[in-house]
Amino acid sequence: MRTFFYAVLLIALVPLTAAAAPMSPVVALEQLRKGFAGMQDFTAEITQEKQLAVMKRKLVSTGTVRFKKPDLFFMELVPPHASRMVLRDSSLDLYFPKEKSRQQIALPADEGLKRWLGLLAKPVTALPEAVDAKADLTGDTQTLTISPRKKGQVHSFTLTSGSDGRLRKLVIDERNGNRTAITFQKMRANVGLSEKDFKVLE
C-alpha cells in the first residue's frame, strides 16, 4: 500500500508537458493577424542566434528592434557582434560600427516587407498563393511555418506567438543552410515611433 502511495505521489509531482496539437495554418495566420492589427509600431528587446552553414558555433547577440507600419524595420545588435540594420520594404541598409562599413542591398520584391505584411492586411480565409504552411498549438503557444514555393533565398520562416497573437520568436531558414532565430522580450506597442528612429547612422 505504501509503495502504491509513493507511486501516485511521484506521478503527481512530475510536471506534465503539453503535447503539440496540429492546427489549421489559416487559423494560425488569422490569430497572428488579429494580434498585429492593433499595432502601428512596436519596440522590443531581442536575443538573436545565428547559425551559419560554414560554422559549427552559434553567434549569439542581444539588441533591440523597432517596427513601424507599413514597411519599416530596424535592428541594432550590441558588441561583440555590433551592427545596425534598416529594412524599408525590400531595401536593406546595413552598418557595422567597428569596421565603419556600410552595405546597401536590394532584395527581390517578393521578399520585401510589403508583400508579407500584406497577408495580414485583411481577415485571412485561405492560405496565400505560392506558399505552403503548417501550424501546431502547444498550450497557449502557436507555431506557424511558412515556406515559399518559389526558390528564393528564404526556405522557410517560423513564427511563434501567444494566444494574444503577439510574436514571441521568429526563425528564418535559408536555402544555403544558414539559420537565424530571434526571440522577442519586453515588447511595447504603439509607442509613437517616427522616421528618425529608423537610421543606421546616428
TrEMBL record:
Q: Which Pfam family is an annotated match for this chain, by its short name? A: LolA
Q: Which InterPro entries match?
A: LolA/LolB/LppX, OM_lipoprot_carrier_LolA-like
Please state the span of the N-terminal signal peptide per the UniProt entry. Answer: 1-20
Q: Which UniProt keywords apply?
A: Lipoprotein, Signal
The cross-references to SUPFAM superfamilies, in alphabetical order and at most eight, read:
Prokaryotic lipoproteins and lipoprotein localization factors
- The name of this protein is Outer membrane lipoprotein carrier protein LolA
Organism of origin = Geoanaerobacter pelophilus
